[in-house]
Amino acid sequence: MLFRAGFSGIGLGWVLRRRGIPFSCRGTGLSYSADPVTREVEGFFRLAENPGDARAFRRVCFRLGEPIPLETVGRALAAEPKDILKYLRDQTDYPRKNPGRLDWVRRVLRGMRGKPPLRQLDSIMDGLGYPWSTAGKEKGGETFLCQRLAVLRVLAAQSPDTTAFLKRLREAEGVLDSPGDHPILLSTVHSAKGREFDRGIILDAL
After folding, report:
1. pLDDT band at residue 135, thresholds of 50, 70 and 90?
2. Crossing angle for the helix pair 141-157 and 10-18, to the nearest 10 degrees
3. How many whole angstroms separate alpha carbon 196 and alpha carbon 173?
4. What sign does the CA torsion over 84, 88, 89, 95 have?
5. Which residue from 37, 68, 143, 198 has the least number of CB within 10 angstroms?
6. From CA 103, how far away is CA 182, in angstroms rounded?
């Protein structure tokens, strides 16, 4: 079974594991938690829970729809405020600063607290416009973004709260970790070049 990128095979890997069907996996190059969309979504979730989370803010600071200069980000984080967005609104000045946008992002993030993960993900996408403003800049464009977000939506729908969702993100890293020799082989298309199979199924071909 062939797919374009490692994250595309995660859902299939879960289904096979759930049904007790052994499989091998090779050449995925998968590091799902290191995928930029996954890291940024996780950053939004963590920043909603803790407005002073510097690591989370670094992940999302250029996805807020507000052109915050890197130097300003560095000064804000060095101050270690309890609410980074509030600090940026009240204590900094930079070209094209939009206090209204900063307030809006704060309201969206505050509104995420306590909601089911799927509704939080919808808030990030609908309320903050993530990630469509950057779709053209990502490798593979909107198709790859949709595939990434589809996996995240499945994880969110299966998670009762933020803690469970973040745990599922970590677990996703090992879903396709299945070495050995089994009748079913999962592989990226790139890793299958030059190989021959009796039967092949191509996922996400369109």
Report:
1. very low
2. 30
3. 28
4. negative
5. 198
6. 54
Helix (H) or strand (E) holding 91: helix 84-91
- Edge-to-edge strand list for the sheet holding 2-3: 2-3, 185-188, 24-26
Cα 203 from chain centroid (whole Å) = 21
**The two structure tokens encoding residue 20:** 């007790």
Confidence (pLDDT) at 137:
47
Per-residue pLDDT reduced to its tens digit, 42-91: 999 999 999 999 999 999 999 999 999 999 999 999 999 999 999 999 99
**In a 3-state reduction of DSSP, which class is residue 135?**
helix
The rounded distance, in Å, linking the Cα atoms of 9 and 2 is: 8
3-state secondary structure 60-127: HCCCCCCCCCHHHHHHHHHCCCCCHHHHHHHHCCCCCCCHHHHHHHHHHHHHHCCCCHHHHHHHHHHH
